[in-house]
Every structure is written in C-alpha cells, then in structure tokens.
Amino acid sequence: MARMARKDIGEIRGIIARAKRLDVIFGVVGVLALGLGLLTFATLFVDMALDGYSRLTPDFFTEFPSRHAERAGILSAWVGTTLVMLVTACVAVPLSVAAGIYLEEYAPRNWITDIIEINIANLAGVPSIIYGLLALGLFVYEFNLGQSILTAGLTLALLILPVVIVATREAIRSIPSHIREGAYALGATKWQVVQHHILPYSMGGIMTGVIIGMARAIGETAPIITIGALTFIAFLPASPVTGTFPFLSFEWLQSPFTVMPIQIFNWTSRPDPNFHANAAAAGFVLVLMTLIMNGLAIWLRYRIRRNIKW
Amino acid sequence: MAEPKPALDTLPLKARASALDFYYGDFQALKKIDMPIYEKRVTALIGPSGCGKSTFLRCFNRMHDLYPGNRYVGEISLHPDNVNLLDKSVDPIEVRMRLSMVFQKPNPFPKTIFENVAYGLRVRGVNRRAVLEEKVEEALRAAALWNEVKDRLQDMAFNLSGGQQQRLCIARALATEPEILLFDEPTSALDPIATASIEELITELKQRVTILIVTHNMQQAARVSDFTAYMYIGELVEFGWTDDIFIKPKNPQTEAYITGRFG
User: Fold this and answer.
1) Which residues of A touch B179 (CB under 8 A)?
2) Relative to the CA of A190, which of A144, A162, A197, B192 has its CA 20 to 30 Å away?
3) Which residues of chain B are within 8 Å of residue A197 when distances are taken between CB atoms?
4) What's the rounded Cα separation, in Å, for the pair B77 and A101?
5) Is some CB atom of chain B closer than 8 A to the CB atom of A178?
C-alpha cells in the first residue's frame, strides 16, 4: 500500500462495529417476532389436526349433522359456505372493481371524492356484527330476501367491498403514468385505456385482493348469525342445474343454510367431547380452505406479473 | 452549410404557435410564445431545466388535458386546414390522432412487439389482420427496427434493449401516419450508441414527417435539427436556423447558454 492507514482508523472501525451490532439486534428481534406468529398458527393448526384427526374421513364430508357425534358430518356446512362465497364473489368483484376504476381514473379531484374515500377507509374498520345488523334490517326485513344464501352472500359482499376496492386502487396506482400517457398519446379514449391497459395490467393485484377478501369472509360468523343462519340443517339447497329447460335454477338463492364457522360454533358449545373432535376436524378443514385460497392468490399474482414489466 | 438557405417566408408552414400562454393552476409556465413549425423539417427546443420546453411540446397533442387545473391561452394552428389545436371545441383525442409523441423513457406496453405497433391502429378501429400486418411492417421498417424483430413479432416488447424499445415506440408513433412527430428528450435514458441510432433515424424521418424535438443536449440539437428555438423561463428567447443559432446567435442570453457559460 502506498499510504498507511490513517491514525483515526480505529475510531472509524469502532463506529462501524457499533452500527453493525444494531443490524444484528434488529435481525434477531425480527426473526423472534416472525417465529412467534408462525408458532402460534402452527400450534393451533397441529392441535386441531390432532384433535380432529379421527373424524377426518370421507363420510365426514358427505353426512349431514346429527345428534350422534360419530355420525355427524359437514355436508350442509361446506355446501352452504361454497354457495355463499359464490354469491359474495359475484356481487363484490364487479362492484368493487368498478368503484376502484372510477375513483382512480374518472373521479374529479374534489371534496365529494374526498368524502367517498374517507368513507371507504372507515368501512374497512366497521365491526362485522354491524354489517349483520344492517343486513338484518335491510335485506331480511326491508327487501324480504329472507334468512337465505342470497342475504348472506350480499352481507359478506358488503363486508369485503372496502378491502377489494383498496386492492383495486393500489393495483391501478402501481401502473406507471408513462404507460397511461403512451396510450392516451395514440388517441385512446378513457375507456379504451381502462379496457386495454388498466384492467389487464392490474388484474393480478385485483385478484389477490378479491381472494384475500374472500378468505376473510369465509370465516365470518357474527354477521351470518345475526341474519339468522340455521345451526342445524339436514338438507341441501335446490340444485342450480335442473333437468328441464332452462337447465339453470336460482331457487338455491332463497334456501336456508348454514356455514362452516356456525357448524363449528354449534359443535363446540355441546357438552359431549365427541362433538369437540368434530369441531376440531371442521376447523381444520376451514383453515385448509383459507390456506388454499391464499395460495391461489400468490400463484395468480405470480402468473400475471410474469408477463408485465415496465 | 455551404448552400444558401431559403428565405423563411418561402418555406411551407406546418404549424404556428401564436401568443401562447400556458398555466399549471396559477403558475404561468409559458409566456406569449410565437413560433413557426416548418413542414418536413426538424425543429429543436433547447433551454435549461424548467424553461418550459417540454410543457410547450405537450401543448401540441393536448397532453395537459389529462390533468386537472391546466389552462391554455392563445393558439397553435395546424396547417394546411388552419385549425386551432387548443380550441375547446377541438377534441383532444382528434388532436392526438393527428400528432404522435415519443416519450423521454421508452414506454412500450407490456404486450407483444406486434401489438405495440398495432395499438394506434386498433384504437382507430382497424382490426383486419392483413392491414395490421402491412402497416406494422412498414412502421417497423421506417423505425429501422424491422430486421432486428421480424422473426419475433410475438415476443414481449420489454425483452428488447432500451434503444430497441425506443425505436419500437417511434414505430408505434409512425404507424398511424402522424402529421407531426413530437419527441420529448427521446435519448436521455439511452446509452451513446443507441442515442446515435435514434439521431440517425430522426434525420431520415424528416423526409416523411414534420418533427419537433425537445432536447437537453445541445450537440444533439446541432446534429439533428434544421431550426432551433432557445427558451428561458417560459419565454421564447430566440428562434432561427440551427447553424445561425449555434454560430452567430443574436441574443447574448442564447450565446451564454450555447457556449456553456450558463445553464
């Protein structure tokens, strides 16, 4: 070396060592925090799996609930949950995507828009039981939709609306303005820009938001109890496909129903410990459904993002 | 240049800005701009950052209409039909269909090479495969990109290099046969080799289209343009033949900027 180390080099190294110590401390704290969350979830999941393991047979999925714990199954619960989720998705997706696009691309910047935005942020924080009360008053009594799958689907759609709107807006905002300007500069109208660019490029983010919203809705119990889902139900809704013209029936929308969390709640509140095993098994299935939905969200986002770069 | 320059009033005019003011809200970004744009010539806009050259360029295709609070006063008339591009009764979409723009950062859409070039035509309702293929090839040839991409038109555009992406954007702008091609610092995100190929392309393109280019690079203005306009804080300081501006500028401010004593 042409020049020897400067005389304060020891001091500089001391400063670096101290700064790096903070790095290590934060790393350890971060791992601990993460581990705590993961461990809690893993414990719950494994505990449920062990408790309910003996009940996880094919019959469990094809039997109605019963007075005898060992004969009871979750058929009406999982069918009910699936149908309610279907209604929720069909209502929530178009409404929130349209709302998100309007707010990002069309809404003028003024106080009305500001009020709408504040409202959406607040809606996300409203306790779910309040949605249940609203649905009871509005859908059940005012619109006479009954204590039906339709009512439950609409209620949960309202519940996840703010989540999906926020996800849609964030996905749209992540599209750089120079891509938008490029399309406008070629003479595209607002709708052409939305249809050809905004929607396709934000689809990954929107789908992720939808699925995360659905994963939240699938576990909701309070609003569903409020609108009066049954806790014991031993029949299925009418089939959506029929043998006669027009081969589609919407009678199932008006059918009474139960959902997974209510079935779990029902079994947990019984004194017989055999029912607790049923509850654990159903809980395991419900968590699995949520995990699969989240996995799907991650996979979809990856697939769609792969073809988009700027 | 050795050959004598024709008198300015004998040159055909493509557009003229007259008494043009522009406001971002309350801030006046352009002040009383009067400037001719001559047909099938390259006109360069130079000046220090914030002088309003990009703002001026973006008036031509009404890009400012995309954002609230922007206001034009005065006019930009487009010849030969003498329509005022800035008039409220003129639809900005119609203006953008007549004038094309190439941006500072290459901005291909995340679609295939073919669909990028075809997009302007699709917006105009052209969907016949044969017509699209013909126009896309013609535009890619004009942008000197055809030989590099002809075997992979269905590849995603972002797989191209930066310089290729910018030529793709030029092809996309050319495919709709614009009357004026607007360039907003088209080489500022490119390396010197890609820059040279874009500059060469601009020189070739003036055979077919009128070009207005904003550049922060004075050598680039000197190399590619026939006319140069020097702007400073929203005003047009000097306009003239490029070699006049660079060799014997009339205004001392222009001279200070060009010789690098200022800016």
Assistant:
1) none
2) A162
3) 109
4) 35
5) yes
